[in-house]
From TrEMBL:
It holds the Pfam family dCMP_cyt_deam_1. GO terms for cellular component: cytoplasm. SUPFAM superfamilies: Cytidine deaminase-like. GO terms for molecular function: hydrolase activity; zinc ion binding. InterPro entries: APOBEC/CMP_deaminase_Zn-bd (IPR016192), CMP_dCMP_dom (IPR002125), Cytidine_deaminase-like (IPR016193). Residues 3-115 form the CMP/dCMP-type deaminase domain. This is Nucleoside deaminase. Keywords: Hydrolase, Metal-binding, Zinc. It comes from Scrofimicrobium canadense.
Amino acid sequence: MDTRDIDFLRQAIDLATQARSRGDEPFGALITDSAGSVLTKAYNSIDSSADITSHAEMNAVRDVWKPGIDLRGATLYASCEPCAMCSGAIFWSGIGRVVFALSGDTLISLAGGPQSPLVLSLPCRSVFAKGGHEVVVCGPLLEDEARFPVEGYWN
């Protein structure tokens, strides 16, 4: 972890705020290459696109991944811990590192608790651990900042 990681994570949190302002769910993500250049920025767009798979991380991966691209040196920064679907896409894209702010457990508590019918509690580390290559995971980080765009959204 270094100051660049914190800066990129704050950008992801800002993207989450933008998503909420646009009427979508409050999640943001960006991907950088190994040199720290931003390859793409994305926010959740499931409501505006009417596509349940349009999570911020999925949108970012879709924007960057092309057949033959080597993303092992890339980092995905997310305002919240990637869900199981997004973790699968991250893994299969070959992205080598994930840095996230808000933990999945904290998100669940902010969204109404584990009794919600839409909760699928599966940490990204658990998904990546079942794969054939390593994905380095850093997080949760900056949880107090990352709560801001999420708090009250599902109330």
